[in-house]
Amino acid sequence: MEDAPAGGTHALVVGVGRYPFLAGGEKEVPEHGGMGQLSSPPVSARAFADWLLREYAFAARPRASVALLLSEPGSDSYTNPRDGAIHTVPPATIENLVAAVKAWRVRAAGSAQNRLLFYFCGHGIAHGVDMALLAEDYNPADPNNPLDAALDFNGLRRGLRSSPAAEQLFFLDACRSTDAVLSDQDEHPYAGRVPLLYRRRPDDLPALRSTPYFATLAGERAFGRPEQVSLFTQALLRGLAGAGSTKSSGSWKVTTAQLAASIDDFMRRPVMAGTAALAQIPTANEVSDFEVHELAGDPRVPVYVSCLPPEDSVLADFSCRSRPAGGTVPADASPTLSRPCSEVDAEQEGDGEWYLELGPGDYHFEADLHDGRPRARDSFAWPPHLTVRLEAAP
C-alpha cells in the first residue's frame, strides 16, 4: 500500500477465515478433522493492519509498506484508516501467499536497517517443531499433498535468514495442535510450501534478530471469538498500546521482551481471557530484545483491582481517583473511573476483578461493600499489569 526509502518496516498481514474444503465450506470434505470456518481471523487481521497504518511509529524504521491478504465471505476490500482509500484485497490462497512473501522480501532487500514484520491469523497445525499455516485452499482430502496449500513457517524463517533486514518479527495467531497430515510423516516431514531458499547469512550483514510470538504452546489450540478480535491479537494490540513499553531516552517505547511479558500476563488473566486463561498459553521462546514501537504519549497501564478475600470483589463498588503526588485525595473528589457491582457480568471469570487502564501516576483506589469497613489503598500506576488488592481495615 505504500513505498518508502530504505530503513523502514515492511509488513505482511494475513487473515484466513474462509476455508471452502473444511467443515461448513461450500466444498466440505469428510477429512476436515474438526477444522471449519473462522470468523475471528479476518477481523483480527484488519485490526492489526489498522494499528500498523494508524498507530505504528518508530523513527529508525518507519512504516514502509503494508501488504494484506484476507479470506472471508462477502468482502474483498479494505479501507485505509488514515486516508479513507479503499483497496481491493487478494484472498489468502497459497499462490497469493507465496507471491506475497516473495514480494515482501524484495521490498525489504535494500538495507540492513529494514525490518520485516509478519502476522498470520487462521488455521495452523503442528507436529513437534514443525508448523504449517493453512491457506484458504487447504484441502485435507487432496490425494497427492494437502500441505501444498500450506506455508511452512520454519521454512519461511529459514528462508529469511539471508535477507538484509536485520530485525524480523513474527506473530502467529493460530493453533499448533497435532494433525495426522504432519504426524504420519517419518524422518523428513513436509510442512508446506517454502517460498524462499535457505542461504547462509552473509558475513558482512549485521547479526539477525528474529523473534516469533506464538498464540499458544506447541501441540495446543488457540481460541478466537465469533466476529471479534481474537484473544491473542487483543493482548498483542494492548501490549503495543503501552502495556509492553518502557521509558527510554525520554519517550515510551515498546520492546520485544516487554511485549512478550505483557501478552503473557493478559492471557493469564481470567478477567481478560475467560476460560481460555487456563487453556491457551502464549509463548515467545526466542526473544531477541529490541525496540519495536514508540508511543505518541503516555502508555495505558493495565491495572487489576480486587478485594481480599477475592470473593468479595463481586459485591464491591470500586472507584479510582487521581491523587496529587505525595498528597491526599479530597473527600468530595469525583472518581476518575468507577465500577458498581451491578455491572459485574454473572458469567464473567475472575471473581469480579476490575480491569481498567490508567496513565502513569498516583491514584487512590477504594472498594465499598456497604458494610462500614472501608477498603482503600494508594498506589502508583506503573509498571504495567499493576495488581491492587483491597483489604478491610482490622
TrEMBL record:
Q: Which stretches are transmembrane?
A: none
Which residues does the UniProt record annotate as the domain Peptidase C14 caspase?
A: 10-247
Instruction: State the Pfam families in the record.
Output: Peptidase_C14 (PF00656)
Q: Which InterPro entries match?
A: Caspase-like_dom_sf, Pept_C14_caspase
**Protein name as annotated:** Peptidase C14 caspase domain-containing protein
Question: Which species?
Answer: Arthrobacter ginkgonis
